[in-house]
Protein backbone atom coordinates (compact mmCIF):
# COMPACT_ATOMS: atom_id res chain seq x y z
CA UNK A 1 0.00 0.00 0.00
CA UNK A 2 1.30 3.43 -0.82
CA UNK A 3 0.23 6.66 0.86
CA UNK A 4 0.40 10.07 -0.81
CA UNK A 5 3.44 11.23 1.17
CA UNK A 6 5.69 8.50 -0.13
CA UNK A 7 5.18 5.92 2.63
CA UNK A 8 4.64 2.40 1.38
CA UNK A 9 3.99 -0.84 3.23
CA UNK A 10 3.93 -4.38 1.92
CA UNK A 11 2.47 -7.30 3.92
CA UNK A 12 3.56 -10.48 2.11
CA UNK A 13 1.70 -12.88 4.41
CA UNK A 14 -1.58 -11.39 5.70
CA UNK A 15 -2.75 -14.68 7.30
CA UNK A 16 -0.63 -16.73 9.68
CA UNK A 17 -1.57 -20.07 11.24
CA UNK A 18 0.44 -21.10 14.28
CA UNK A 19 0.32 -23.63 17.10
CA UNK A 20 0.70 -22.90 20.79
CA UNK A 21 4.34 -22.30 21.93
CA UNK A 22 5.52 -21.60 18.36
CA UNK A 23 7.53 -18.51 17.35
CA UNK A 24 5.98 -16.48 14.53
CA UNK A 25 7.31 -13.75 12.28
CA UNK A 26 4.91 -10.93 11.40
CA UNK A 27 6.68 -9.92 8.24
CA UNK A 28 6.28 -6.51 6.58
CA UNK A 29 8.42 -4.22 4.44
CA UNK A 30 8.05 -0.45 4.55
CA UNK A 31 9.75 2.40 2.77
CA UNK A 32 9.55 6.17 3.10
CA UNK A 33 11.61 9.28 2.32
CA UNK A 34 12.29 10.39 5.88
CA UNK A 35 12.34 8.87 9.34
CA UNK A 36 9.37 6.63 10.06
CA UNK A 37 7.64 5.62 13.26
CA UNK A 38 6.44 2.03 13.31
CA UNK A 39 3.67 0.95 15.68
CA UNK A 40 2.21 -2.54 16.18
CA UNK A 41 -1.12 -3.22 17.94
CA UNK A 42 -2.93 -6.44 18.72
CA UNK A 43 -6.74 -6.53 18.60
CA UNK A 44 -8.71 -9.55 19.81
CA UNK A 45 -11.82 -10.39 21.80
CA UNK A 46 -9.78 -9.57 24.94
CA UNK A 47 -9.22 -5.99 23.79
CA UNK A 48 -6.59 -3.85 22.09
CA UNK A 49 -2.97 -3.93 23.22
CA UNK A 50 -0.11 -1.79 21.97
CA UNK A 51 2.81 -4.15 21.38
CA UNK A 52 5.70 -1.97 20.30
CA UNK A 53 6.56 1.41 18.81
CA UNK A 54 9.88 2.58 17.42
CA UNK A 55 11.49 5.07 15.08
CA UNK A 56 13.80 3.83 12.38
CA UNK A 57 17.31 3.92 13.77
CA UNK A 58 16.16 5.18 17.21
CA UNK A 59 14.43 4.07 20.37
CA UNK A 60 12.26 0.97 20.73
CA UNK A 61 9.37 1.09 23.19
CA UNK A 62 8.04 -2.43 23.89
CA UNK A 63 4.94 -2.90 26.03
CA UNK A 64 5.60 -4.60 29.38
CA UNK A 65 3.20 -7.42 28.43
CA UNK A 66 5.40 -8.28 25.43
CA UNK A 67 8.79 -7.27 26.91
CA UNK A 68 10.43 -10.74 26.73
CA UNK A 69 8.48 -12.00 23.71
CA UNK A 70 9.02 -9.46 20.91
CA UNK A 71 11.96 -8.88 18.58
CA UNK A 72 11.86 -5.92 16.19
CA UNK A 73 13.50 -5.64 12.78
CA UNK A 74 14.53 -2.58 10.76
CA UNK A 75 12.14 -3.41 7.90
CA UNK A 76 9.18 -3.05 10.32
CA UNK A 77 8.66 -6.75 11.01
CA UNK A 78 8.36 -8.23 14.47
CA UNK A 79 8.88 -11.73 15.79
CA UNK A 80 6.55 -12.96 18.52
CA UNK A 81 7.97 -15.74 20.68
CA UNK A 82 6.05 -18.53 22.39
CA UNK A 83 2.55 -17.70 21.14
CA UNK A 84 -0.52 -18.69 23.12
CA UNK A 85 -4.24 -18.79 22.48
CA UNK A 86 -4.53 -15.16 23.58
CA UNK A 87 -2.20 -14.11 20.74
CA UNK A 88 -4.80 -15.00 18.12
CA UNK A 89 -6.42 -12.01 16.46
CA UNK A 90 -5.59 -9.01 14.29
CA UNK A 91 -2.19 -7.32 14.25
CA UNK A 92 -2.25 -3.76 12.96
CA UNK A 93 0.89 -1.98 11.85
CA UNK A 94 0.98 1.76 11.32
CA UNK A 95 3.95 3.40 9.59
CA UNK A 96 3.99 7.18 10.05
CA UNK A 97 6.42 9.41 8.16
CA UNK A 98 7.99 12.34 10.03
CA UNK A 99 5.86 14.75 7.95
CA UNK A 100 2.62 13.11 9.18
CA UNK A 101 1.60 10.82 6.33
CA UNK A 102 0.96 7.25 7.32
CA UNK A 103 -0.09 3.86 5.97
CA UNK A 104 -1.61 0.79 7.59
CA UNK A 105 -1.35 -2.96 7.32
CA UNK A 106 -3.09 -5.92 8.93
CA UNK A 107 -2.07 -9.50 9.67
CA UNK A 108 -4.54 -12.08 10.95
CA UNK A 109 -3.06 -14.71 13.28
CA UNK A 110 -4.84 -17.95 14.10
CA UNK A 111 -3.43 -20.01 16.98
CA UNK A 112 -4.33 -23.66 17.42
CA UNK A 113 -3.79 -25.91 20.41
CA UNK A 114 -1.82 -29.10 20.01
CA UNK A 115 -3.88 -32.05 21.18
CA UNK A 116 -1.03 -33.97 22.83
CA UNK A 117 -2.95 -33.95 26.12
CA UNK A 118 -5.87 -35.78 24.53
CA UNK A 119 -3.56 -38.31 22.88
CA UNK A 120 -1.78 -38.81 26.20
CA UNK A 121 -5.11 -39.50 27.92
CA UNK A 122 -6.10 -42.04 25.25
CA UNK A 123 -2.72 -43.79 25.52
CA UNK A 124 -2.97 -44.02 29.32
CA UNK A 125 -6.56 -45.27 29.12
CA UNK A 126 -5.56 -47.88 26.53
CA UNK A 127 -2.65 -49.07 28.70
CA UNK A 128 -4.94 -49.29 31.74
CA UNK A 129 -7.56 -51.31 29.83
CA UNK A 130 -4.85 -53.62 28.44
CA UNK A 131 -3.52 -54.24 31.96
CA UNK A 132 -7.01 -54.95 33.33
CA UNK A 133 -7.75 -57.36 30.47
CA UNK A 134 -4.42 -59.16 31.06
CA UNK A 135 -5.26 -59.56 34.75
CA UNK A 136 -8.73 -60.87 33.89
CA UNK A 137 -7.27 -63.34 31.38
CA UNK A 138 -4.85 -64.64 34.03
CA UNK A 139 -7.68 -64.89 36.56
CA UNK A 140 -9.84 -66.85 34.09
CA UNK A 141 -6.91 -69.18 33.32
CA UNK A 142 -6.39 -69.83 37.04
CA UNK A 143 -10.12 -70.47 37.53
CA UNK A 144 -10.09 -72.88 34.59
CA UNK A 145 -7.07 -74.76 35.98
CA UNK A 146 -8.65 -74.91 39.43
CA UNK A 147 -11.90 -76.23 37.94
CA UNK A 148 -10.00 -78.98 36.05
CA UNK A 149 -8.12 -79.96 39.19
CA UNK A 150 -11.35 -79.98 41.20
CA UNK A 151 -13.08 -82.12 38.54
CA UNK A 152 -10.15 -84.60 38.47
CA UNK A 153 -10.16 -85.02 42.25
CA UNK A 154 -13.96 -85.39 42.30
CA UNK A 155 -13.86 -87.93 39.44
CA UNK A 156 -11.02 -89.81 41.14
CA UNK A 157 -13.01 -89.99 44.39
CA UNK A 158 -16.09 -91.16 42.52
CA UNK A 159 -14.19 -93.94 40.71
CA UNK A 160 -12.54 -95.01 43.96
CA UNK A 161 -15.89 -95.26 45.78
CA UNK A 162 -17.54 -97.25 42.95
CA UNK A 163 -14.57 -99.63 42.87
CA UNK A 164 -14.92 -100.19 46.61
CA UNK A 165 -18.63 -100.92 46.22
CA UNK A 166 -17.95 -103.44 43.47
CA UNK A 167 -15.28 -105.10 45.59
CA UNK A 168 -17.61 -105.17 48.59
CA UNK A 169 -20.35 -106.72 46.50
CA UNK A 170 -18.06 -109.46 45.24
CA UNK A 171 -16.88 -110.25 48.74
CA UNK A 172 -20.41 -110.60 50.05
CA UNK A 173 -21.24 -113.20 47.50
TrEMBL record:
The chain crosses the membrane at residues 119-142. This is VSTM5 protein. It is found in: Membrane. InterPro entries: CD2/SLAM_rcpt, Ig-like_dom_sf, Ig-like_fold, Ig_sub, Ig_V-set. GO terms for cellular component: axon; dendrite; plasma membrane. It comes from the Eukaryota. Keywords: Glycoprotein, Membrane, Signal, Transmembrane, Transmembrane helix. It comes from Ciconia maguari. Residues 13-112 form the Immunoglobulin domain. The gene is Vstm5. One of its GO terms (biological process) is positive regulation of excitatory synapse assembly. Its main location: membrane.
Amino acid sequence: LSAPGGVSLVVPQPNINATVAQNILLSVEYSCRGIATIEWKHVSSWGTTKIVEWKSGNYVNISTVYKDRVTTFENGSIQLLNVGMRDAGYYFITVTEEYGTNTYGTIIVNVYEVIYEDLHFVAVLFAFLAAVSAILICFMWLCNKSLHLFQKTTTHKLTASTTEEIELETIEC
